Amino acid sequence: MVELLSSVTVIGGKASEELAKRVARRLGADFVGSELRVFPDGETKITLKRVPGRGKIIVVNSTYPPVDSNLVQTLALISKARQHSANIVAVIPYLGYARQDREFLPGEVVTLSVIARLLKAAGATKLVVVDIHSRTGMKHFTIPIKNISAIEELALFFKKMRLKNPLVVSPDLGGAKRAQEFAKSYGTEHITLEKRRDRKTGRVQIMTSSLDGVKGRDLVLVDDMISTGGSIVKATEFLKKQRCRRVFVACTHALLVGNAEKKIRKAGVSRIVSANTIPGSTSAVDVSKAVSKAV
Ligand code: R5P
User: Which among 10, 34, 82, 170 has the fewest CB atoms less than 10 Å away?
Assistant: First the structure.
């Protein structure tokens, strides 16, 4: 049971208003909404609907597309909150730019380190994120950062579905630990595919040549995020060739850019289930409990 903290205010940005309300309810905190105005040139102006308290302020806003606009609004809310309190927890459930955590090709900017400095400069004193793309990314932050996970909740969601002889699959080596955690919470086994992405074109290829033990089984592909859907489409096509039964997808952040959802369904995926770090048609798993504990 979460202790009541009446001196706490939760500010909800437009990208995460529903989640922010849920967090406020769980904490017994005041909720302060925001109003957004978009100018003809694309600039946004964000205004708080009420004056927050002087105690701890939790600013909740994801930075999914339009990433830069949501990021600027998050920074603006943090800086406004800082005028009222010295204790500002920024909750960015989906942290955009987390994949730009290192210099993959010479000359590339490690943009995540720039974001880390911006959040601190705006006034955040602590950061909470959900299933950050890699732990390497966390090293760029000089304020305390807590990475919580939706994987267990996703696994519990799938446990309620009637799957036949389920097997958990990571589409790439980087996600192996995530798939292992999901499989452990579900109480089944997991395997990992080998994926290669061309760093220049972004093209994805599955390098695993064949698999034993998937025939006739229901598979759950587990990933941190779906952007264009390229990784999931390639993995599904490969798994279908191995004569599996149905393919499901569990991911924390369903960006589903452009026609990603359509492409994934066309590839043969029966259902996509994601968390409400990004609200949408697939976001069936709520992270407000984990967020409330972390702040
Ligand atoms: C990559 O390492 C990530 O975990 C995701 O698999 C990837 O970012 C998804 O992107 P897309 O949907 O565009 O393939």
Answer: 82
